Amino acid sequence: MFLRTYGISQPTRYTFSEVKKIARRFKEKIGQGGYGSVYRGELQNRVPVAVKMLENSRGEGEVFINEVATIGLIHHANIVRLVGFCSEGTRRALIYEFMPNESLEKYIFSHNPNIFQHLLVPQKLLDIALGIARGMEYLHQGCNQRILHFDIKPHNILLDYNFNPKISDFGLAKLCPRDQSIVTLTAARGTMGYIAPELYSRNFGEISYKSDVYSFGMLVLEMVSGRRNSDPSIESQNKVYLPEWIYEKVINDHELALPAETTEEEKEKVRQLAIVALWRNRPSMTKVVNMLTGSLQNLQMPPKPYVTSENQLMP
Question: How far is 215 from 230, CA to CA, in rounded Å?
Fold first, then answer.
């Protein structure tokens, strides 16, 4: 019913046999997510693509519908483009533009010091954060309907040939009218460590676009520290609360994760990123873009973050 109603020519609808050809019979697997496997492929015109085969689609293909409905018709430099899809019986596939440099997660948590020193220099970190912020601003303000992503995290930020960031994976997204600020959800959605407190408990307030802003803040804190905000493999995780740890570093003028030789200007860029990410009143993404493109001198230091009973940053 959804596909009949959709009734448009973009993105292209493919048959499963066409998908098999595009994915070159699924020979080169390049990723695995919660909803299926991703394969490298190529369109007839030799354009490289990524083919995601949905294997664990919840309900009546909710993840599939979310992806097609949300990113099928939007075009933005910082949002991954959906080229086509397939829905044939139980077989569902999504075909995206190919992102050669994989996800941001691979770089910010890398144990290879060269990655930080040569790729994620402070200016590049700022460019990546700004690109993600612009993509999110478009989702929240620039579309006919507001799109709330609900799963902003380093794994879902893909990098193109020039390391420009593109937001991907809209399987948990929710569409709502632009003038509607409060959203109703039947259950929390997202990934541990990036989920805003109100998604766990109404005691923390209503669910809105600010839930995405919270996730963005956590992502940026991970970018400037090179540390995960939530790592189940560390037993003493509760002893180190990332926002508080970064706040202390910034307030005491201590350095964050930086290459060995860093100029004063570069240190200021990282400090600027940290201050923007620490704002717990969660400004709109338009305000975030302005703060990232403005000067450090114009930024106020936010109040100190503190841990709630859910080990989450207070809104």
Answer: 12
